[in-house]
């Protein structure tokens, strides 16, 4: 019903009221009763006019209020949508972080297992190495610093020993990359032990010796257990003699 109270309606009503007032004023020429009626109608017109103006003000205020409510509701909805989007993004991010965390936890477990395996293996090799020392009169020891093949050999000789001669599977023990007493320094391709005896049985890594770059004449025990083709009985590699590593001495 409020929709009928437009500006045009007010104007028509006010105009009609004034017209009625004027009409009755004209008729009121000599009659006393008609004058009173005219005055009454005039008052009614004024009251009607005031009522209409007040109604108009009220409706305008309500309309503004409703408009303001609508704006507030729209802003509220936008805020809710924005928060919903943020929540969705955060949940996605949370799931990704959870996945990453799970993946890293799994890798950590694998690495811990690997470290434990390697530690056990190293301990076992150390025990093997120690047990070899206890056997017979042979004594093994490792140089403490990294040296070239010939410096390693000198280190051993300074202590009444020499680089190890590995002529049995038992002596194939190492827990890092170390020089042994074998080389083909004098004649390329002809391996000789430090006691000048020729090599009879070799425990070569797959593809070795390869004399890479024509510059590999000294032999190491390669402890690279991650490499394909490595095994405790297939671990020898020829390597440049100037490279620095520890050596196993045998006394
Ligand atoms: Ca060589
Ligand atoms: Ca090699």
What is the structure about, briefly put?
This protein is α+β, with helices and mostly antiparallel strands and 251 residues long. It has helices spanning 7-27, 32-134, 149-158; strands at 140-142, 162-163, 178-183, 192-193, 218-221, 236-239, 246-250.
Describe the fold and architecture:
Residues 135-250 form the C-type lectin domain. The protein is an alpha+beta fold and 251 residues long. The chain has a domain at 140-250: Mannose-Binding Protein A, Chain A. It has three helices and seven strands. It has helices at residues 7-27, 32-134, 149-158, and strands at 140-142, 162-163, 178-183, 192-193, 218-221, 236-239, 246-250. It is rod-shaped and about 160 Å long. The model has no long low-confidence stretch (mean pLDDT 86). The structure holds calcium ion (2 copies). One calcium ion is lined by residues 184, 188, 211, 216-217, 238. One calcium ion (CA) binds at residues 184, 188, 211, 216-217, 238.
